[in-house]
Amino acid sequence: MRSILQDLTPEFLKILNKDKIFWFDGWKEYKQTRPKIIREYEKLENLNENKVKERLNAIRRKDLDMFKQYWENNFLEIKKEMVMKLSRNAEYFQLKRGDFVVFIMGLLGLNSHYYIETYYGTVIVVDSFYHFLYKEDINKTIENSIINFIKNNPVNEKRALFGKVLSQIEKIIYDNNNINKVMEKIVKILYENIEYYNWVGFYLTDKNNKNMLKLGPYLGEPTEHINIPFGKGICGQAASTKNTFIVQDVTKESNYLSCSEKTKAEIVIPIIDKSGNVFGELDIDSHKLNPFTIEDTQFLEEIIDLFVKKFF
Ligand code: SME
User: Fold this and answer.
1) Is the CB of 214 under 6 A from ligand 1?
2) From the candidate CATH numbers 3.30.450.40, 3.40.640.10, 3.40.50.10710, 3.40.50.300, the one assigned to the domain spanning 159-311
3) Which among 43, 45, 118, 298 counts the fewest CB atoms within 10 Å?
């Protein structure tokens, strides 16, 4: 069974290592562990910096200390119970569908749970601190929120697939230090797993000419476009604007370099290093018209984010 239940409460509780006047710094550090989720949480709760500070200020150290103790003494048991219940009823909870996960997180005790959309599906975020404060049964919340989610959302096949592929890619990036090997492997996984990704490759900025892209590792039909100047074609435009470039129908794009008659759509994600220079880009062609949705963009940008974090 994929691990659909994760507990991030201990990360939150690190805040207790700091003096109360520095809890907001602790919150910022905590935010680093799951930036997108916590940013979304703040949005959903309408929390700006001052409101977070106010709320942290209102929480008593004593309550957090007691929460920590409670969590350390009871969570394993709570989790065991939940995992057992979920796996015994895997079908009922539709665990195979793969487009949702549950994160138990220490948050500010404002609401019991939230639904947050990500590239790998919906994250059901359950506030453990809320359940401690109001003595509510966290496992009941988890159960009900999953049921509520599956009742209201048809399976998102794309996200389910992207979630699985992304975890393979994450592992490759984590395990390999050779940038070329990693690029080759990313190309292979994307090409083999996503049926409408019919040409997948990297273009890399030429070391001797900062305004030229050179073809890197790729899979798909050979292309005559080995060198592409910045600004030319979809690839060149993505490089010069430093933005993801999506063309759902290449016949409608005048600045386009054709590689294959079969290509109908293309998406290019630039790879920007820490100093803001274009290291290169990930280019994908599809034989399908209008194939790319927000899920593709988020998924591919996430891959590039991980790649940049590792190598730059
Ligand atoms: N179509 C691209 C050229 C590269 S190939 O798709 C592999 C473009 O317009 O830049």
Assistant:
1) no
2) 3.30.450.40
3) 43
Taking the CA of residue 223 as reference, the ligand 1 atom at the shortest distance is 7
| Alpha carbon distance 162, 299 (integer Å) | 7
DSSP state for residue 237 in the 8-state scheme: H
Q: Is 215 in the pocket of ligand 1 (CB under 6 A)?
A: no
Q: What are the residue boundaries of the structural domains of the chain, listed by start?
A: 5-155, 159-311
Protein residue with least CA distance to atom 3, ligand 1? 257
- The answer to whether the CB of 287 is under 6 A from ligand 1 is no
> Atom of ligand 1 at shortest distance to CA of 218?
7
Q: Is the pTM of this model over 0.85?
A: no
Beta strands in the chain (DSSP E): 5-7, 100-105, 113-118, 121-127, 199-206, 209-219, 227-229, 245-247, 265-272, 278-286
